[in-house]
Design a protein that fits this description.
This protein has 299 residues and is mainly β. The chain has 4 helices and 13 strands. Strand 1 and strand 2 form a beta hairpin. The structure holds 2-acetamido-2-deoxy-beta-D-glucopyranose (4 copies) and copper (II) ion. One 2-acetamido-2-deoxy-beta-D-glucopyranose binds next to loops. One of its GO terms (biological process) is cellulose catabolic process. Its EC number is 1.14.99.56. It catalyses: [(1->4)-beta-D-glucosyl]n+m + reduced acceptor + O2 = 4-dehydro-beta-D-glucosyl-[(1->4)-beta-D-glucosyl]n-1 + [(1->4)-beta-D-glucosyl]m + acceptor + H2O. It comes from Cercophora scortea.
């Protein structure tokens, strides 16, 4: 598909189907433990063991800039909270496994956290009220334009990492329930009106203190005015959204707010060494309680 797309782009045609191969997060791995994501394309889910938010994006499609102020930009089309949370120690690196990614769909890879501020977690959270803080912007998203644009982007690193991304949870993040909003912005059509494509994916996490690690001196508390509602993250006129990646850019302005002070994303160079193994028995957090992992269905 990428080569056909490249040919069609080169020919300047507008006869492309609107829904080419897209993707979702199939699963995540935290310290060797695997948690199922939500597959909108028809897999049967045991909602008790799925930490990925459900969506109705059955075509694995995207949210366009014209919908940046719609609730669909929060956690994808009709996004609804997962019941379960993956427990994650402060400072852990989370491996997010996308179900493939088309090479032509160059762009940045972004990650945000929003606290749920509830003893029962995120399963009933009001998504419009979530305040998002950026913890990763894939800096630099545009890696190399040689020998010719569009060149090498964060998505090319993601593809080279078996379609995965490593997100570091800040070591000093206040324990509790959070939604992780992970997103790719594909820019292959961003030179057209309303052409950028946002692929947001949400998963529930329950952050706890890491055993055997000194308590961080300064706790990172998110939300309460520090974060941004997802419907206010981007504008269709943003320099990093309305952009022609087929001309030489030199630099690229990553959309959205900057990464919160004191948090260092996993560098691009370390993304590629991310080949995880998953062989442990995970537990989940449901309504604030740690529970055994139910039999997953249709993994
Ligand atoms: C999900 O959990 C609820 C509450 O514990 C239980 O009643 C229900 O049977 C579970 N469903 C599945 C499919 O495991
Ligand atoms: C944008 O949002 C509107 C209103 O919710 C919806 O009807 C439309 O399908 C959305 N467009 C896309 C491409 O998702
Ligand atoms: C959800 O949050 C939004 C934004 O804060 C608010 O306007 C709305 O009333 C809330 N909805 C419910 C059902 O509480
Ligand atoms: C690459 O990802 C696929 C799922 O898309 C997975 O089945 C496979 O085990 C992964 N390979 C490695 C080396 O992690
Ligand atoms: Cu596509």
């Amino acid at each position: 598909m990428p080569s056909i797309l490249a040919l069609l782009l080169a020919a300047g045609t507008s006869l492309l189907p609107s829904a080419l191969a897209h993707s979702h997060i199939n699963y995540l791995i935290i310290n060797g433990l695997l948690y199922p994501g939500y597959d909108p394309t028809g897999r049967t889910h045991n909602r008790n063991s799925t930490v990925g938010w459900s969506t109705t994006a059955a075509d694995d499609g995207f949210v366009p800039p014209s919908n940046y102020s719609s609730p669909d930009i929060i956690c994808h089309v009709n996004g609804a909270p997962a019941l379960a949370h993956a427990p994650v120690p402060q400072g852990a690196k989370i491996h997010l496994q996308w179900n493939g990614w088309p090479q032509s769909h160059h762009g940045p890879v972004l990650s945000y956290l929003a606290p749920c501020n509830s003893a029962t977690g995120c399963s009933k959270v009001n998504k419009t009220a979530l305040e998002w803080t950026k913890i990763d912007n894939s800096f630099p998203a545009l890696v190399d334009e040689t020998p010719s644009p569009p060149g090498d982007w964060a998505t090319d690193t993601l593809i080279a990492s078996n379609n995965s991304w490593l997100v570091g949870i800040p070591a000093n993040l206040a324990p509790g329930p959070y939604v992780l909003r992970h997103e790719i912005i594909a820019l292959h059509y961003a030179n057209r009106k309303d052409g950028a494509q946002n692929y947001p994916q949400c998963v529930n996490l329950w952050v706890h203190s890491a055993q055997g690690v000194a308590t961080p001196t300064k706790t990172l508390s998110l939300g309460a005015g520090l974060g941004t509602p997802a419907t206010k993250l981007y504008k269709s006129t943003d320099a990093g959204v309305a952009v022609d990646i087929y001309t030489k850019l030199g630099t690229y302005v990553i959309p959205g707010p900057t990464v919160v002070a004191g948090v260092t994303p996993v560098p691009l160079a370390q993304q590629r060494s991310s080949v995880p193994t998953a062989d442990g028995t995970p537990v989940l957090v449901m309504a604030g309680k740690t529970v055994p992992f139910p039999e997953p269905t249709g993994r």
